[in-house]
Design a protein that fits this description.
The strands form two sheets. The protein has a two-stranded antiparallel ribbon. Strands 3-4 form a two-stranded antiparallel ribbon. The radius of gyration is 19 Å and the shape is globular. The mean pLDDT is 88. The chain has one domain. β3 and β4 form a beta hairpin. It is built from eleven helices and four strands. It is 70% helix and 3% strand.
């Protein structure tokens, strides 16, 4: 059976692989949306934090023998602590200023982190093994799906939906949103707004670190892995709507699928299709598909 002249097996296979890429787009764009939506910071260091998360998992395994499951908890915590240091020493000086200052600062920070890891480990990349529990593959009939890739999709969906629920449906999320709108009023109710802001940035950084750990067994762990992905993720956030949590999740998954389908029908355009969609969306809806018009 064929679809537009393409064998069904190839069509569905690329659709599944596109969903895996979309899961990473969703997780990374979610962290960006949380930080921008609640702190108004365009965090260009997000790709570098993703890379640090992957390297943290690899170093833990190589030097300390820490397995994947423990690294899945510890590496995001390490990146989250790094996020606390960044927010307390650098970003807190930029609140209330034009977001351009935050973009320039985090861009410079990303270059520093990438340079440090490139100096220590080069650019050839390090391999990270798939955990034994998730080794092997499942025969879906139309393709052989690696078990680990299926786990990545499920884990990403769980993390994304849990984060959305915390921010949009809980009292903590209400405090976070209120703190960004009127910090003095929220402080009058006894809420420690600076602590809340710090933990928000740390949580966004930890999400990037978690995505890095999940990516480590799939791709080579290299200092360039963040810079190769962050531009696409920013395009995903812009299409979904800057600061829109659910918009980032849905757009990341959908664009991953579209990218996968493009590889089937027109492979040469697969690397630019996301940016073409971004241009079209910005022309007709500058706030993004799920963003609020100013």
């Amino acid at each position: 059976m064929e679809i537009f002249g393409i064998p069904l097996q190839a069509f569905l296979g690329q659709l599944i692989l596109g969903l895996v890429n979309g899961a990473f787009y969703a997780m990374l764009s979610l962290g960006l949306a949380v930080i921008f939506g609640l702190l108004d910071i365009v965090n260009f260091a997000h790709g570098a934090l993703y890379m640090v998360g992957a390297f943290a998992a690899w170093i833990m395994l190589d030097k300390l023998g820490v397995n994947f499951w423990l690294a899945l908890v510890l590496a995001p915590l390490v990146v989250g602590v790094l996020g606390v240091v960044i927010e307390r020493t650098l970003l807190k000086r930029l609140y209330g200023l034009d977001p351009l200052y935050g973009l320039l600062l985090t861009f410079g920070l990303a270059q520093i982190l990438e340079g440090v890891f490139r100096d220590q480990y080069g650019v050839s990349g390090q391999s990270y093994p798939v955990p034994d529990l998730l080794s092997g593959a499942t025969n879906l009939g139309f393709m052989i799906l690696p078990n680990y890739r299926a786990f990545v999709v499920l884990a990403s969906l769980v993390v994304c939906l849990f984060t959305w629920f915390i921010i949009e449906r809980t009292r903590l999320g209400a405090y976070l949103r209120a703190g960004t709108e009127n910090a003095r009023l929220v402080q009058a109710f006894g809420v420690n707004v600076p602590l809340m802001v710090m933990l928000t940035y740390a949580a966004g950084a930890a999400l990037a670190g978690l995505a890095g750990v999940l990516a480590a067994p799939i791709i080579q762990v290299t200092p360039l892995m963040g810079s190769n992905l962050i531009v696409v993720v920013f395009a995903v956030v812009v299409i979904g709507g800057m600061g829109s949590i659910m918009g980032s999740i849905l757009t990341g998954l959908i664009l991953g699928l579209i990218e996968g389908l493009t590889r089937v029908f027109y492979p040469e355009a697969s690397s630019v299709v996301v940016f073409v969609i971004m241009v079209i969306v910005l022309i007709f809806r500058p706030a993004g598909l799920f963003g609020k018009e100013a």
